[in-house]
User: What shape does this take?
Amino acid sequence: MITRQLGPFTVSATGFGCMNICHAYSERLSDAEAGKVLRAALDAGITHFDTAALYGFGQSETWVGEFLSAHRNEFTLASKCGMQGVDVDGSGKKVRVIDGRPETIKKTCEDALRRLKTDVIDLYYLHRWDKQVPIEESVGGLADLVSAGKIRAIGLSEVSSETLRKAHAVHPIAAVQTEYSLWTRNPEISVDATCRELGVALVAFSPVARGFLADSVRTADQFGPKDIRRGMPRFQPDNLEKNLALLPRYNAIAAEVGCTPAQLAIAWLLHQGAHIHPIPGTTRVAHVHENARADEVHLSADVLSRLDSLINQSTVTGNRYDAQAQSEVDTEFFA
Ligand SMILES: NC(=O)c1ccc[n+]([C@@H]2O[C@H](COP(=O)([O-])OP(=O)(O)OC[C@H]3O[C@@H](n4cnc5c(N)ncnc54)[C@H](OP(=O)(O)O)[C@@H]3O)[C@@H](O)[C@H]2O)c1
Assistant: This one.
């Protein structure tokens, strides 16, 4: 596979997102299924794995440790802190909590190292900026982890240019992770330019638009009870119907190029700059192989321009997040 520079690490151009094996769009995989998918990604040449304390409230990190730690020196390991499952009322039931205090970050890192069966996490992100805690304090906590040799590099997730600059002044930031795809262009407002200026990698999450650009969404009825797309504006029936109307022309471009719709979405990202790292997630081995080969797809200037005008913030209907989720992030967004 083609490689790219992610901070100090040389990684496969396309990484692997380890959220979906636990939660988000489908039911949690079995241990055996999760192991097969993770091993398939490694065997396909992927050398950038992205997980988080949040995913499955530790289950994703546990599986990465269980199935990949024997190959720890073959890939770059990224994980995240600052948002995790907490048993707030002592009932045994965990809920998602954003907490960016340095002491919480350090405790989360210790738990992660144990689950991941490793001594050091290569790239450790603050998953959300906790607006109760100055970003400088949270990054200071992460910088202490670098000094202690527990993590090698620091990343931020879903932040604005202003927050990135403040953080970068405390300690160099290796990567910003944020949603980026043809249908979510928010990074183009500002944070992408700031990443380029500061030499920060941009890790693009939800690169196939949570399945939409992979031609795997047909109707809002297909989402199971725990599928997070049920609450997302763009996947509400009226909006989805309008958005689906874009796909015949999009799929025709994929056919013309000679790739699949998912590969087209990933390839479009790879063509936006050498600092962009798409991290698609999947529960299926066949999709692992398909996505891993997106770096072989060359897009001409004409195709890039037609894609740009077909799917963008003006042609897509509905916000990417509802009001609650939007209030938890710090990203600039198209109103
Ligand atoms: N920092 C953050 O706040 C944040 C937020 C969200 C995600 N992330 C990270 O980004 C990763 C990827 O994002 P994501 O999972 O939200 O979105 P995504 O990768 O854009 O989409 C995943 C969805 O697309 C489907 N899919 C993937 N490849 C496919 C293919 N080749 N053909 C057909 N369907 C395909 C998957 O279904 P199948 O399982 O059926 O393939 C799944 O439903 C996550 O795993 C996580 O590591 C980070």
In short: The mean pLDDT is 97. The domain at 3-215+262-298 is CATH 3.20.20.100 (TIM Barrel). The first strand starts at residue 3 and ends at 6.
